Fold this sequence. Notes:
85 residues, mainly alpha, elongated
Amino acid sequence: xxxxxxxxxxxxxxxxxxxxxxxxxxxxxxxxxxxxxxxxxxxxxxxxxxxxxxxxxxxxxxxxxxxxxxxxxxxxxxxxxxxxx
Length: 85
């Protein structure tokens, strides 16, 4: 029975090096991340304080609407997060 021919594979040639471009991370929106985190934390703290003080604080006259205010801060944090690049 005849032997099949052995095919020689081409030697590996590494890809040519290209000039890497640097990414400018300071695009002028450095205020977005701190504001977003601040809104999240203020909303969370507002809700936690409301539950820990059994509704007496942060604003006692609002009653259960304090939860809505806390979630409003959290929602504002999500709105601000859309500006993050």
